[in-house]
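Note to self: the last two entries modelled the partners one at a time, which told us nothing about the interface. This time every component goes in together.
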Amino acid sequence: MGPGPGNPYPEVALGFARPLLGHLDPEFLTVLDETNDRLRQVWRTSNALTFPVSGTGSAGMEISFVNVVRPGSTVVVGVNGVFGGRMCEVAARAGAEVVRVDFEWGQPVDPEQLADAHPSPDVIALVHAETSTGVRSDVAAVADRKGDALLIADCVTSLGGIPVAIDDWGVDIAYSGTQKCLGVPPGLAPFTINERALERLVPTPQSWYLDLNLIAGYVGGDSGRSYHHTAPISMIQGLHAGLGALLDEGLEASWERHQRVGDLLKKGLVERGFELFAAEGHRLPELTTAVVPPSIDEADVRRRLLTDYDIEVGGGLGPVAGKVWRIGTMGHTARVSNVNMFLAALDDLL
Amino acid sequence: MGPGPGNPYPEVALGFARPLLGHLDPEFLTVLDETNDRLRQVWRTSNALTFPVSGTGSAGMEISFVNVVRPGSTVVVGVNGVFGGRMCEVAARAGAEVVRVDFEWGQPVDPEQLADAHPSPDVIALVHAETSTGVRSDVAAVADRKGDALLIADCVTSLGGIPVAIDDWGVDIAYSGTQKCLGVPPGLAPFTINERALERLVPTPQSWYLDLNLIAGYVGGDSGRSYHHTAPISMIQGLHAGLGALLDEGLEASWERHQRVGDLLKKGLVERGFELFAAEGHRLPELTTAVVPPSIDEADVRRRLLTDYDIEVGGGLGPVAGKVWRIGTMGHTARVSNVNMFLAALDDLL
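The predicted structure of the combined assembly is written out below.
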């Protein structure tokens, strides 16, 4: 019940247990194609280039920026937590002139302020669900105001847990991680990019490993498969299985479950004297941030939850370190029984 | 029996099956520390910063270059196959002036020619075991001639299968992949770097994801653990288990097994009219390249080996496409029974 990874769906173990195939074996390429189809359903997109990047969520962030940012590109970033800050860092290393627009931790990114920050940015970027604060920002409203800019959205903690609609919203590039609401161990970064963004690709990005021009030749599929790097076969087989479990349940059903379980957790925390940290109306169901009452030694109770009850919850980062807990109910972990177990353990300890 | 991935050791499945822990859970950090210790044994190094990079072997190549190459750095690369060529590309994207020294495919890199290519390079790089040709080059002899340069060695297809001795040889930076002679699925890049190279790190490399200064704060361990990116937990648990199997057998025993099985395969191929492609004295036991006799329709027989016998062998790349086979006997796949099964299938088909 930390801020991710959550527990994987049991089906993932069956994916891992499949015999290891070669990365050019037709049988594996079928699994990869199916995985990409499943990702398109979860992203709600028809983008042809939709696939899991061979790295964790942060590699998803890096592939998003290095393929469209040129030296001197103007990149406007909304920052309301750790991961918005990281976007600024990654964009700057790709040579961007970064226009950083800060918002208070616990508050969402304001779409108008973000749009007004620069008259003609090349890229606008924000985090949909900030893992450091438990706040949801309105990506669709930012997309409405993007003008000619490309919009990059970090959906690491949102995909699978709350509505994401890449095509309807008008998001050009988005990435996620497997270990949050998709219910798969960390190691891959689901990624999607539309035609509009593909037309603006950097021809030779600074990263060879994350060069979309080259990777498209392997995952694109239409004109044969040219080897780029060896795909992480087992992780993709695990993702294939986890997405299968998610889609068997149904995407809306998963969103509804995350909401119901998150509400139950928040109610239980408030009843026990915790204050919810994220701004009302913008609280993530899958990640609850709560200010720990001063009467509680947060680090000690957190440690005892782990050692005595096998329950992990996350501490605060940055300005809220030592003050808030971050409690995840993501993917397979989003179960009423887990919330009940956590609250009972908390009652025991307090 | 392709050029990698090979079959994983059965113990790896048990690693994958362990419950998923958080990336800051003390129990997982113990697994990570043990994994790094096991990697030190396999690399034969005491380098403190030895860990699996969160990406495949090509990410290992990229982390090696972007952290020590500055714009204008002179990088001498020995090229005798695909992966030496890839090194030139990765180094150039990091801003290097690349001095490319070509050798015939099938021949090793000549240490003297490499050393004579530039009077004072910043970096010298070569591939220990070329996956595209099945050739071993003499890394120790290059290290003897490196002067003040840093030496980067690609050990993707060598580590675990033939002797590698990072400290004794004087290699400054080396990387590998999990899916070859370590007998683990693809997805991680075992990496090691010595103090001499750490003193020359680029303070802010172009890649945030592969920034060693930041990653060291998580894997370094001595002064607490600062979160950088979420480690690929399950893959690391799998690597931990695979390295356990390898070290239980013993590193020398594994080398000896690879040699014995590779010799058997080469003998069987020669008896059937194949010519060995790699230069004598430089042939890899774990990856045999053989020129297919003109009487054999190589693509058709290769396809039927896969569909009718469940045996994968690799085709040629680049100038030897359609001419050679690349047959792997790596990690758990390096078994006499596999060679016998392959040769029997070949006899059947021919």
